[in-house]
Write a structure and sequence with these properties.
This protein is of the alpha/beta class. The protein contains five helices and nine strands. Helix 5 links the parallel strand 7 and strand 8.
Length: 171
């Protein structure tokens, strides 16, 4: 069973070729991941043997902005300016009156949409999210499957508990 999950981890991480992330080797002291950027600089991160079986929430950031679906683009930008941003922003997650995830607005779309337009009209309403009980391995699967740079981690009622991004696999 353990070997089977190791093989799955290798396969999913190898599928990251579009991000140029892959497993270099596995030994008793852990796995080494290597990221090769556009300029061929490499960064590696050592993963302990049991790392892929840890809950994804141990890797999630909690400093992420959310925006209400009824805000206009102008109001959303004002809200972002007044409350600040988290450490890394790739996507802006849109919530409803119950703070449940209902959409996502990529940064480019937020910056290029008309200021009077409502977020609910420009957001993508089919949002790929990772359940809070998922493991790091399951997050790897999501990154490989959807080819996104970040995912919200949600509970059963779609409240966002954290955000994981592809940098969790690089230094």
């Amino acid at each position: 069973m353990r070997e089977n999950s190791r093989q799955r981890a290798r396969e999913f991480l190898l599928a990251f070729k579009s991000y140029n992330i892959y497993v270099l080797h596995h030994n008793a002291s852990g796995r080494t991941l290597q990221f090769v950027g556009k300029d061929n600089e490499t960064m590696a991160k050592r993963l302990p043997d049991d790392h892929l079986h840890k809950p994804v929430m141990t890797m999630a950031r909690t400093d992420f902005p959310t925006l209400h679906k009824e805000l206009t683009i102008q109001q959303a930008l004002d809200d972002i300016r007044s409350h600040g941003l988290g450490d890394k922003i790739v996507y802006f997650y849109v919530v409803d009156d119950n703070d449940a995830l209902v959409g996502v607005v990529p940064t480019r779309r937020l910056l290029s949409s008309p200021l009077h337009e409502k977020l609910s009209n420009v957001m993508i309403d089919k949002v790929a999210a990772i359940p809070e009980k998922a493991t790091v391995l399951e997050a790897c699967e999501a990154f490989a499957m959807y080819k996104l740079l970040a995912f919200p981690v949600v509970n059963k009622t779609r409240h966002i508990l954290g955000v994981v991004d592809v940098s969790m696999f690089t230094d």
